[in-house]
Design a protein that fits this description.
heterodimer; A: 528 residues; alpha/beta; Rossmann fold; 3 domains; 20 helices; B: two-stranded antiparallel ribbon; two-stranded antiparallel ribbon
């Protein structure tokens, strides 16, 4: 491909559009970005890679003006941009397109494109809807999508790909100079991805800079001119794609020296691994939920911690929800201690000894305005009830026991759960499920948003439960956590189990290569 | 660790202000009620006599009985606008079947079944079809009333047997509807405060999904509550027919607004999660006394509406000021 090569040589001479200088941002003591610098040039597709939590999304939010960094500068054409101001970012020509990039699902395409800066008539009294409509049509034509959909229909009726088109049309209408795309192809079909790539190339030809965030390495090699890798909020490298290989890129993302320290210190593996007994307490046979995940089969034995890794959206939480009876399965079966689970309700799952600590602790896990005690006993009130009446004495005893066992730090069991820190809230969710005395414990992102100290305590608790014979399914996007905690690791990709790795063979590279979509023709793309 | 110590520091202050005295709203209602009665005793001494009060109390019981299930429903962050219309339909069924020669006891059973059916229908649409309760009961508010008018052709049925009209009379010097209400109020208060279902009702009002994820059969509870509201409406229809010795399609007109006003005035949060039976009882009492006093003193029905409206706004303001913050 001589054209691509010549583009890349041109880049060296082309000028820089945006300079990001020493950006720092921390959330409550956790450093999301610590001193990140990078440049993005006009007419280049600049890929940004890194694991979950590397700081990519924080950088995007800073560029879009929705988050103010603690310090650092962003220079646009050499002049400092006002940070933390969405209007300033828009004025600088920065447009961000998320997976769900359109804000107002119930409004039409043209409403979404012009929201906040609608063309007016009658001296600004009325919206000039006719102008909006015709300009929208012209924009869609420029994107080559004029016939694809009706701009009058509410955006919620459009496909994800079409919604991205709306986002790109909005970007185009704003005369955007930097297009930021966050995982744009996560839910696109192959054909839609092709259309999107052509559009991105067209933007590049018009001199627009594109910052392209993706987990899909093949896409990065196909599309981008340069690639930058972040790890743990730090800039690791920026290189022309020509000098990059897939192995090198994964290595940059994972960081070998980091891996080593992790295992030595905070995530020390269990010294005496529990010996898994022969009874599979939880067993899935070809479990399928149409359009979400297919033919998922695995088993978890008593005393075993099975990790489940995969990218966001691979279907891990969805599998957990079906096991727990929150969603129905379309095919396949769940067995508990060899017997079919039977029925499909949370109540049934609870009776059979399944407990789930859900991913979204604020909405699914806790009733935040209610007290610590109330939250802890919510699933077990029936057990504390005699002749229809709940015994407040027994309830109090149970609550005290749980608070002590879990080390929940609360002024009293009567304070609302929402006043507790994230880590203590998470302990509440785990505690309320331990109170049900489960045999199978599903943990979905149990340490997300939890500070380091509480994280170690949660890990200790999980190990202790496994020693006592709990069958644990640990879903986590935190790779070091999965590696350190699990006896076996299942990896999910696009709704399927893409592989199983034993603890001995498990490395971040192996897990990632199973989690990231496989290339169709790797040789050609690396050469491209 | 730092956040934990923050919790410990922040909690005592919060608790003193917000959890220290849990009956602020009820306290304010009692104060308002006392103020009203003291004023009334000075300007209208006859009004506050026990005999007058007992006579006037015949008007209160239907409102009071309906307010109990409504309290539970509003705590789950639902609403039932159809109670007045359900009353009308039950009253018409009672009257028409009595006029057709059915024994009055059996006619009462028919009325009860009608109320049950109305409630179950609301419950099914809300719990199973998952339509918003406001929409469902707004629709049945008009549908049940229309049905009542259609069946009765606008006629009123009266001349019920004395054995029936005595239901609204006294037993051992106390009004029978009042005794019924006391019984129901006690059962409701215990159910709300002491049973797993009562706990679930509060929790549902804050976060229904988290309840479902805690294994609580939220749909079953909703179905039961709207069914109870329908049953309560049929009982009040029977009490109304007995008290006024008449049954027609206009029974319970506007009742839903009075009931909701009383419940909200009593401190139940319209957003769900908070509310108590004692508050509802005080809310009913305050509305009742205000109404009766205004109509006694000024003999002005328009003014009643205004005063009740002002009371409602006042109570919502109080509620906002007195309930713990932190749930935006």
């Amino acid at each position: 491909m001589p054209r691509a090569v010549s583009r890349r040589t041109l880049l060296m001479t082309s000028d820089t559009f945006i300079q990001i200088r020493d950006i720092h941002k921390s959330y409550g003591g956790v450093h999301a970005l610590s001193g990140v610098s990078m440049d993005i040039a006009r007419g280049e597709v600049h890929a940004l890679c890194g694991e979950n939590g590397a700081g990519k999304s924080t950088l995007i939010k800073i560029l879009s003006g929705s988050v103010t960094p603690d310090r650092g500068d962003v220079l646009v054409n050499g002049a400092a941009m006002r940070l933390g101001d969405v209007r300033a970012s828009e004025a600088a020509g920065i447009a961000v397109i998320h997976q769900e990039s359109v804000a107002f699902g119930h409004l039409s395409t043209f409403d979404n494109i012009y929201v906040g800066r609608e063309p007016k008539k009658l001296g600004g009294l009325l919206l000039d809807r006719a102008a909006m409509r015709s300009q929208t049509r012209a924009l869609l034509q420029r994107l080559g999508e004029a016939d694809a959909f009706d701009p009058v229909r509410p955006v919620s009726e459009l496909s994800v790909a079409q919604r991205q088109m709306v986002g790109m049309a909005r970007a185009l209408s704003q005369d955007c100079r930097l297009l930021v795309m966050d995982e744009p192809t996560a839910s696109l079909s192959e054909r839609e991805t092709r259309v999107l790539f052509n559009l991105i190339r067209q933007f590049r030809k018009d001199g627009v800079a594109v910052l392209y965030v993706s987990h899909r390495l093949d896409e990065i090699f196909e599309l981008s001119d340069r690639v930058t890798v972040f790890r743990d909020g730090k800039h690791v490298s920026t290189e022309p794609i020509a000098g990059m290989t897939k192995e090198k890129l994964i290595h940059c993302m994972v960081g070998r020296e980091l891996l080593a320290t992790d295992q030595e210190t905070s995530f020390s593996r269990r010294v005496h691994p529990a010996r898994p007994s022969d009874v599979p307490l939880l067993q899935l046979k070809n479990l399928t939920r149409a359009g979400v995940f297919q033919n998922v089969s695995f088993e978890v034995r008593a005393g075993e911690i099975v990790g489940m890794a995969g990218l966001v959206g691979a279907g891990r939480s969805e599998v957990a929800r079906v096991i727990f009876g929150a969603d129905p399965a379309d095919a396949g079966q769940v067995f508990i201690a060899g017997e079919p689970l039977g029925g499909n309700s949370i109540d049934q799952a609870m009776r059979r000894g399944i407990a789930m600590v859900p991913e979204d602790r604020q909405h699914l896990g806790l009733v935040l305005p209610m007290s610590v005690g109330t939250n802890l006993t919510l699933p077990i009130l029936r057990r504390l009830t005699r002749f229809g009446l709940t015994s407040s004495k027994r309830e109090r005893q149970e609550v005290e026991k749980l608070i002590k066992a879990l080390g929940v730090k609360a002024a009293s069991p009567a304070v609302p759960a929402e006043t507790l820190s994230g880590g203590n809230q998470q302990k509440l969710v785990i505690g309320k499920w331990l109170a049900t005395r489960p045999r199978v414990l599903i943990l979905d992102e149990p340490t997300r948003g939890v500070d380091v100290g509480a994280k170690a305590e949660v890990h200790k608790l999980i190990r202790q439960l496994a020693e006592e014979g709990m069958a644990t399914l640990l879903i986590s996007s935190d790779l070091p956590e999965v590696l350190a905690m699990s006896d076996r690791i299942l990896v999910m990709r696009a709704g399927m189990i893409s592989g199983e790795i034993s603890r001995e063979e498990a490395t971040q590279e192996k897990v990632l290569s199973l989690a990231i979509p496989a290339s169709s023709s790797p040789g050609a793309e690396v050469a491209a | 660790m730092t956040d934990a110590s923050d919790d410990t520091l922040a909690a005592p202050r919060r608790r003193f202000l917000e959890n220290g005295f849990l009956f602020w709203h009820e306290f304010v209602l009692v104060a308002l009620l006392a103020g009203l009665l003291i004023y009334a005793a000075r300007v209208e001494p006859v009004f506050t006599r026990t005999k007058t009060q007992l006579n006037l109390s015949t008007h209160i019981w239907e409102l009071a009985i309906l307010a109990l299930p409504m309290t539970l429903i509003i705590i789950t962050s639902g609403i039932d606008l159809s109670v007045g219309s359900t009353m009308a339909l039950c009253a018409v069924v009672l009257g028409m079947s009595f006029r057709a020669g059915t024994p009055i006891a059996l006619a009462c059973v028919f009325a009860a079944i009608t109320g049950l059916g109305c409630g179950v229908l609301n419950g099914i649409f809300i719990a199973c079809v998952r339509v918003h309760p406001l929409i469902v009961t707004l629709a049945t508010l008009s549908a049940y009333r229309g049905l009542a008018e259609g069946i009765s052709h606008g006629e009123a049925i009266s001349r019920f047997p004395p054995a029936f009209t005595q239901i609204s009379g006294n037993l051992a010097g106390l009004p029978i509807p009042g005794l019924l209400f006391a019984l129901f109020a006690l059962v409701t208060a215990i159910a709300l405060g002491k049973t797993p279902t009562g706990r679930a009702i509060y929790a549902m009002g804050f976060n229904e999904t988290a309840c479902r994820f805690s294994g609580i059969a939220t749909n079953k509870i909703k179905l039961i509550l709207y069914t109870l509201a329908g049953l309560a409406a049929s009982l009040t229809a029977i009490l109304f027919a007995a008290r006024r010795n008449t049954a027609n399609a206009a029974v319970g007109d506007g009742m839903e607004l009075d009931v909701i006003t009383a419940v909200v005035l009593g401190g139940t949060s319209i957003f769900g999660g908070r509310g108590r039976v004692i508050g509802t009882i005080l809310g009913v009492l305050l509305i009742h006394e205000t109404r009766e006093f205004v109509s006694w003193h000024w003999q002005n029905d328009v003014l009643i509406q205004v005063v009740v409206g002002v009371l409602l706004i006042l109570s919502v303001l109080l509620n906002t000021l007195l309930t713990p913050r932190g749930r935006e």
